[in-house]
Amino acid sequence: MVWCSGWRLASAVSHAGGLGLLGAGSMHPEVLREHIRRCKAATDKPFGVNIPLLYPQIEEIMQIVAEEGVKIVFTSAGNPKTWTRWLKERGITVAHVVSSSKFAAKCEAAGVDAIVAEGFEAGGHNGREETTTLCLIPAVRKATSLPLIAAGGMGTGEGVLASMVLGAEGVQIGTRFALTHESSASEAFKQRCVALQEGDTKLLLKKLAPTRLVKNEFCDLVEQAENNGATADELRELLGRGRAKKGIFEGDLVEGELEIGQVSALCPSLQSVDEVMTELLRGFEQAASKTYTLK
Question: Per the CATH hierarchy, to which homologous superfamily does domain 7-184+264-294 belong?
Fold first, then answer.
């Protein structure tokens, strides 16, 4: 949710009955502090912060989270052992994002409170295993007794119900909320993504960090480079700096890195957070009602 989930989106999700998360991955430390304070002012509901553990200023980010009294942190892209104890000693609930049952077991050993299992369908950075959510959730459920949150391809009420049938207690939704009015992504990016059809995204950059991209000119360059055997260093040079910001936040649909999940093909139009939440609940209830009828 880099460049998408600032205080407006996080507070709106929390106010609508979810748990809004600030995306720290695209924020400088003091920018994160400002968003935390604005989120507190905008809602009296709980919210959290998602922190990629590979963040270059991770110590400063963690200090700010503790100083500002954040109670929930979702960590990703790193070893949960590094910060989980430190966070929990300060009364912070910790969930960690994984892409395999192997890493889910390591999370439990590290002492996290909950696990987010994210499948291949997800937008942005993905796991190297390329396991789909439908296969990942039951595998992780067998590997751990911790509360399990399904992610990757979660964007409909029917999908929420399916994940719970497979063993999850809840879901984490990115793409649907990234494409709302409250998202801080550019309008051009949002409009491009709600027009996507099935198959209009692709997982690339596997020699660096597997990333799901919208097919555009930059995506074509990456795919061509990979097909020609580009090294990791050559891919880094092609990627450059600020490529995701250029695409998602600034709206450069040609040379920008456009990250979004496969479920974007099911997003009918730009909606408000309230509209998305209402639609999710209605779809869940209708699907549950049909399931019980079949019994």
Answer: Aldolase class I (3.20.20.70)
